[in-house]
Amino acid sequence: MSTILAYTSPAIGHLFPMMPLLLELRSRGHDVHVRTLGNRVDAVREAGLSAEAIDPAIGEIVHPDWEATNPVQGLKLAVRTFSERGRLDGPDLERAIADVQPDLVVVDTNSWGAQLTAQAWGGPWATFSPYTPPISSKGTPPFGPGLAPMAGPLGRVRDGIARPLVVGAAERVLRPRVNALRDERGLPPIRTADEFYRQAPLMLVTTAEPFEYPHPDWGDRITMIGALAWEPPTEAPAWLDEIDGPLVLVTTSSEYQADETLVRAAAEGLAGEPYTVVATMPAGVSDLGPLPSNVRVVDFVPHGPVLDRAIAAVTHGGMGATQKALSRGVPVCVVPFGRDQHEVAARVVHAGAGTRLATKKLTPTALRDKVRETTASKAGAERVAAGYRAAGGAAAGATALEQLLERAPAQRA
After folding, report:
1. Does 80 lie in the same domain as 54?
2. Separation between Cα atoms, residue 341 and residue 343, nearest integer Å
């Protein structure tokens, strides 16, 4: 069997979806090594994988996307953050490759410098994207603002006008930063964002239709494998068993995003509703003052046991939390704050699996009304869950990586 090295960005929202894939590879006899957040190394080791910490300085470069006032500015901030981290994660992966001597490298899509290191390394490598990559596709609106697909000539005109305004603005920031990193590794420059995101021989994307839009022109190098959910083995807290009746889960980002306003609105707007609200704030619990009797706020609780009893979930639009709910057939109300979250919200609505509430319209009353509307989308959420299962999950991803390994000798020749 082969030695496989996986490298993640400093976000548990990127590590956790990768874990089912890595555990599947281990179950097939591969020797799997992981480089990830220092405070998650023990959890990865306890799951049975070899693990070491990434350079802690990478995580100290904070993604300040809460400062963005529009999706275009948010994309620009993301480009700056990932390229700054790339000056550290590239050399960090070089050290890991020298230490592990892998046959295959799998790199988080947000670890830009590490991707370039893997490309320059010359062996087989793949990217892992726990969210829809911003790759253009016929009939799909430009990535960022969360526009709904629009068919026909009018849609083509709209997308043709919007794409240079959205993607073009981000590309003007991306090209010089990425090309400077590429030049340091002796790689030729890229001209477009598509060219950058398509550089790996294989990209695994953890989503699937009907949640994701059709992409017939993406080709075989981009493979959608469905939603992957993992949590460290943790017993559900005793207080969860003491709650009678249905639940609603409210999530915020694991990387601070100034989304505590979502929990405040939920605490006030969902007070007195015929269910218990469980809100998680992994980036740190804010002082929300006295809470209604049906609302509990914690920094962490395993989402699985909550979702098993949930009639709806309210998410910040993080792909992991949203798909975790949908994979259980739980409809979702998405309140997007930035990053890829506007795109996630658009897909939830497009799939008929829930609702969307703009942060500018976020009030306790508006959120309460949207949650009530969301509970009627159970059938759409179940269709999405069926699509995820049909995509094959971790087994499909592991098979794609093994096929990449099988092709490697011919590629090197």
Report:
1. yes
2. 5
Contact between 316 and 280 (Cβ < 8 Å): no
Report yes or no on 232 lying in a domain: no
Distances (CA, A) of 62 to 78, 202, 219, 257, 299: 10, 28, 34, 10, 20
Give domain status of residue 350, yes or no.
yes
354: left (phi over 0), alpha (psi -120 to 50) or beta: left
> What DSSP designation does 313 have?
E
What is the per-residue pLDDT across 396-410, written as a single tens digit (0 to 9) for each?
999 999 999 998 864
Q: Where are the alpha helices (DSSP H) in 253-350?
A: 260-269, 303-307, 319-326, 341-350
Rounded to 5 degrees, what are φ and ψ at 151? Answer: -80, 165
The pLDDT value recorded for residue 255 is 64
**Digit-coded pLDDT (tens) for 127-165:** 999 999 989 888 889 888 888 898 889 998 988 888 888
Q: What is the pLDDT of residues 360-385, one digit of tens each?
A: 999 999 999 999 999 999 999 999 99
Question: How far is 98 from 93, CA to CA, in rounded Å?
Answer: 9
- Cβ-Cβ contacts under 8 Å for 199 (sequence gap 6 or more): 115, 119, 190
Structural domain boundaries, residue 182: 3-226+392-412
Q: Are 404 and 238 in contact (CB under 8 A)?
A: no
